[in-house]
């Protein structure tokens, strides 16, 4: 599902963010990406959805070779994966329903299919009763669950989450993890960058630790391994 071979990323200003990474992530895995600030976690994740291009090496995601993919095919790549950010990135002028439907309207799905798909993902994130609310009318945890619903509405094989609990209090964060685990149990691969030590050490999964742009640890049921 994700294959990186001898991947390097140097930013135009000369910062060497990723320095020779080899990694393989299979369908159905749940992987935490951990490491100190500035270690290269975000860059590692951005390479997976072609927000950044590798300077050297190959990155293959969902059978797309991201170092070689044409600009015109990037929207097709993006539809094969879902992305969730720390700051939710919901559109404030649209309702919960509309925020999720938006992703389907751009690919011109029929209205009835859209409705079925949106209500289905709202059920997965336990928010069917909030469909008509606007983002400012719901809590932070609920906003993040809407963002997750939007990310999975196209049925992506891979869900990428960059610090999804970074803006949430502990109780709310556990709720988000429950939803992510349910999505993973349905077969979706999840890659999640996080600083949340309690979550990583309690809900044990594969842990990839990035330090200085390299993989310092890669353990099947790893621990967070840093003080926060
Ligand atoms: P992390 O997510 O682990 O905090 P990042 O991938 O954001 O690490 O950053 C790795 C290194 O690359 C840091 O030194 C950071 O300052 C640098 N960096 C990140 N993004 C850019 C960019 N767009 N241009 C230049 N340097 C960057
Ligand atoms: P969560 O644990 O999901 O973050 P909260 O404890 O923050 O939930 O919120 C509890 C309830 O209060 C939620 O059902 C939410 O709909 C409602 N709520 C929270 N913030 C707001 C707000 N700014 N406006 C309206 N309702 C809100």
UniProtKB/TrEMBL annotation:
<keyword id="KW-0813">Transport</keyword>
<keyword id="KW-1003">Cell membrane</keyword>
<keyword id="KW-0472">Membrane</keyword>
<keyword id="KW-0067">ATP-binding</keyword>
<dbReference type="GO" id="GO:0016887">
    <property type="term" value="F:ATP hydrolysis activity"/>
</dbReference>
<dbReference type="InterPro" id="IPR027417">
    <property type="entry name" value="P-loop_NTPase"/>
</dbReference>
<dbReference type="GO" id="GO:0005886">
    <property type="term" value="C:plasma membrane"/>
</dbReference>
<comment type="similarity">
    <text>Belongs to the ABC transporter superfamily.</text>
</comment>
<protein>
    <recommendedName>
        <fullName>Cell division ATP-binding protein FtsE</fullName>
    </recommendedName>
</protein>
<dbReference type="GO" id="GO:0022857">
    <property type="term" value="F:transmembrane transporter activity"/>
</dbReference>
<keyword id="KW-0131">Cell cycle</keyword>
<dbReference type="GO" id="GO:0051301">
    <property type="term" value="P:cell division"/>
</dbReference>
<keyword id="KW-0132">Cell division</keyword>
<dbReference type="InterPro" id="IPR017871">
    <property type="entry name" value="ABC_transporter-like_CS"/>
</dbReference>
<dbReference type="InterPro" id="IPR015854">
    <property type="entry name" value="ABC_transpr_LolD-like"/>
</dbReference>
<dbReference type="InterPro" id="IPR003593">
    <property type="entry name" value="AAA+_ATPase"/>
</dbReference>
<keyword id="KW-0547">Nucleotide-binding</keyword>
<comment type="subunit">
    <text>Homodimer. Forms a membrane-associated complex with FtsX.</text>
</comment>
<comment type="function">
    <text>Part of the ABC transporter FtsEX involved in cellular division.</text>
</comment>
<feature type="domain" description="ABC transporter">
    <location>
        <begin position="2"/>
        <end position="227"/>
    </location>
</feature>
<dbReference type="InterPro" id="IPR003439">
    <property type="entry name" value="ABC_transporter-like_ATP-bd"/>
</dbReference>
<dbReference type="GO" id="GO:0005524">
    <property type="term" value="F:ATP binding"/>
</dbReference>
<dbReference type="InterPro" id="IPR005286">
    <property type="entry name" value="Cell_div_FtsE"/>
</dbReference>
<dbReference type="Pfam" id="PF00005">
    <property type="entry name" value="ABC_tran"/>
</dbReference>
